[in-house]
Amino acid sequence: MLELRDIAAKAGTFALNDISLAVDRGSCHVIVGATGSGKTLLLESILGLRKLSRGSVLLSGREITNQPLEKRNISYVPQDLALFPHLTVEDNILYGLRMKGIKDREHARMVEMLMETVGIKELARRSIGNLSGGERQRVALVRAIAAGNNHLLLDEPFSALHQGLRRELWFVLKELQKSCDLTVLMVTHDIEEAFFLGDRVSVMIDGAIRQTGVARDVYEKPADTAVARFFGIRNIFPGRVRALSKSVLHVACDSLGAELTIPMGAALHQPTEPGARCTVGIRPENVMVLKTDRPSYVQENLLAGILTEILLKGATHTLLFRPAGTATVVEIEVPDYALKKLQLNVGDGISIFFKGESLFLI
User: 300, exposed or middle or buried, with CB in 10 Å at 0-12, 13-18, 19+?
Assistant: First the structure.
């Protein structure tokens, strides 16, 4: 396990603030945040490349806060990969082992197995300058793992690659993590990447961790408005609790011209009394569309209004909807087949509804 306790560090005027998290053994913990949010500074602080203002770093229960980098037993893949251009693929991978004086056959077989797993065995004698971006990425991963450390830090490892290749390497990393029993802490700005790879996900904003949890929970229930907006959720509406029971909340949302019924489990921090102010959100892909000329049996969380815009994107499309009597815009994400089936046009009168379990409260 890798554990961070109340870490604070500075880089110029920027500061990390009270970072605490634990990366369970054999898991992948992903920290996602925008460029400049402090992700790289945090990794450098864990490695000892940056001096901590306070806090401690523990590895398998042993404090390593003041140990030099080479004694921390943590492998690292920086964003620029830091491969040696004058060495071959094989020599790059074996560099760390040779520095430790390790030249036995067992480790040689392990390196060969790793190279074969990621598909670079035939590139062993090739120079780094003659590799593609994806091949260099594979070399960097294998070199880090071959060093023999079970803890691996990754700094935006796939950010320079195109989407197709990035996705391919996500599967490679998952396979390596499982086969080598790696404990991985990775940082990225890519939200899809974070949820694909992370067993647990933390959201970093302006040098602070705003939310940490199981990937699915973080995805479905953002902790606050800042996290929701970082995820690109624009369907965020102010509300006021009108009534509550053991199972549901009734929330008046004046900006939607509607009262919403929401399960009590939709909120991380439950309102305790009628009249409490809150914010209601829903992901655009969870908004359901109904044509007004078709019968509906939906009773709750149903809004009628006008389709104001259709933005075509490819496999999915974005619809903009304005509830009747309001100036509010609700964003809707629909797959291409659904848009064709609905046969919608701008200006159509439609209804939308929110499934209660798809709403979140912050």
Answer: middle
Dihedral (Cα; 153, 157, 159, 165), 10-degree rounding: -140
Written as six digits, the tokens of 92 are 């790059």
Which range marks the domain in which residue 261 is found?
233-361
Residue for token pair 């992700």: 39
Residues 164 and 271 in one domain: no
Return the amino acid letter for 282.
I
What would the pLDDT profile of 194-236 be if each residue is shown by its tens digit? 999 999 999 999 999 999 999 999 998 999 999 999 999 999 9
Residues 81-110 have a mean pLDDT of: 84
Work out how many domains the chain is built from and give that number.
Answer: 2
CA torsion sign for 209, 215, 221, 226 is: positive
Q: Which amino acid is at 250?
A: H
Q: Rounded to an integer, what distance in angstroms lies between the CA atom of residue 11 and that of residue 167?
A: 32
Burial of 312 per CB tally in 10 Å (0-12, 13-18, 19+): exposed
